[in-house]
């Protein structure tokens, strides 16, 4: 591969965040190209379908094709936000994390699949860190997930991605939610 691949997406986590994670874990440096989000009375720039795109030399790979971008699936109205949050944390704590905890305990290896880093490990770490942004003590009853998080976070390429100033995107700010809702609704 000559030159850095270019990632095209809006300047936020969204569907491209996992791709950024995987490329970072593989040690692939990329150029980020962000779509600009803006709206006006007569038009909406970048509406209907979002495309996650990786461009390398003269080839373009549409990672997930055209995706109807439903912002209401991601952000809840203020009156439903608390219930949605409680539901998400309940599912993480009582359904998903217990399964991963058991897999790590029964497997006895450092990784979810086999004995080397895989996409599953990267995506589980991403999920854990996002859950901790919402509820910092969410792993309190999951010692194997705590060890997993520490181990995977210390892989040099992932550790670099987790540092401030990396290509990892921050959580969406509350003040941006209203703007996104206006553009995509």
Description:
Belongs to the GST superfamily. Alpha family. Pfam families: GST_C_3. The chain is an alpha+beta fold. It has seven helices and four strands, in the order E-H-E-E-E-H-H-H-H-H-H. Strands 2-1-3-4 form a four-stranded mixed sheet, with no helix packed on it. Strand 1, helix 1 and strand 2 form a beta-alpha-beta unit. It is flat. The N and C termini lie far apart (40 Å). 12% of the residues are buried.
Q: Layout of SSEs?
A:
Blueprint: E1 6-10, H1 16-25, E2 31-35, E3 49-56, E4 59-68, H2 71-74, H3 78-107, H4 119-134, H5 143-153, H6 156-161, H7 174-184
Parallel strand pairs: 1-2
Antiparallel strand pairs: 1-3, 3-4
Helix pairs in contact: 1-4, 3-5, 4-5
Strand proportion, as a percent range, falls in 15-25%
Q: Helix and strand succession? A: EHEEEHHHHHH
**pLDDT averaged over residues:** 75
Helix tally equals 7
Give Rg in angstroms: 18 Å
Helix content: 40-55%
Major sheet attributes: 4 strands, mixed
How many β-strands, per DSSP?
4
Q: What structural class do you assign from the helix and strand content? A: alpha+beta
- Quick one: overall form? flat
Please provide a brief summary of the model.
Helix content is 48%, strand content 15%.
Features:
7 helices, 185 residues, 15% strand, 48% helix, alpha+beta
